[in-house]
Amino acid sequence: MHPIRNQITALLLGAATVTGIMLPAATAQAAPVEQHSPAVISSEMAALGISVDVVTNTVNITGKLYSIISAAIAQNQNRSGYVKSLMEGSFYDARQRYNVMVIKAGHNYTANLKNIVYDATVHGSDYPAFRVIVFSSGTFTNRGDGGWINWAFRGWFNRDGMTVNFRRP
After folding, report:
1. How far apart are the C-alpha atoms of 63 and 77, rounded to whole Å?
2. Residues of the domain holding 25
3. Minimal CA–CA distance to 86: which of 6, 29, 20, 151?
4. Residue 1 lies in a domain
5. What is the dihedral angle through the alpha carbons of 43, 78, 107, 118, rounded to the nearest 10 degrees?
6. Which residues are bridge partners to 118 per DSSP?
7. N or C, which terminus of the chain has less Cβ within 10 Å?
8. Strand intervals (E) in the chain
9. Considering only 25-34, 79-88, 114-123, which range has the smallest mean pLDDT?
10. Residue 48 has what pLDDT?
């Protein structure tokens, strides 16, 4: 089966903030994403310069990603807070059942991830593109710069330097 590439859009959602760092988990559990006309959503997100290119979408967290990007832009959030928000929002919107990796698109890394249920490249107007991957297990090695501004991960793992071994939840 060929990967499906769609540009999917969703409306801006509110987000809880504490000292300038968004906590998407509060909104992930608070309310479901509303369903609206794709034409209305597309025009609103295009005006903000936001897009998400989805490759794999078994677990649909695209609406949460738009919420995170939009809130980060509105709050002038720092890049490390933005990356953490992508990670947390993805983890909670996937119902805490999968591992999550967020890495700057084009960053040098090797990955051997199993059962990928969500794979998207997130483009926010004020930030570089980031790849968001939600999966069950595998190994990921960051061969570039580390730090919250370039990558973030959450789930069930052991870390040895820049190599992370994820196990099934």
Report:
1. 19
2. 6-166
3. 151
4. no
5. -50
6. 57, 134
7. N
8. 6-7, 16-18, 21-23, 51-57, 99-104, 109-114, 118-123, 130-135, 137-142, 151-154, 157-160, 163-166
9. 25-34
10. 60
130 part of a folded domain: yes
pLDDT tens for 37-64 read: 333 344 555 666 667 777 766 677 877 7
Residue in the block written with tokens 């249920």: 117
In terms of Cα–Cα distance, which of 59, 63, 71 is closest to 18?
71
Domain count, the chain: 1
CB count within 10 Å of CB 43 equals 11
Dihedrals φ, ψ of 144, to 5°?
A: -115, -160
> Where are any strands of DSSP class E within 73-149?
99-104, 109-114, 118-123, 130-135, 137-142
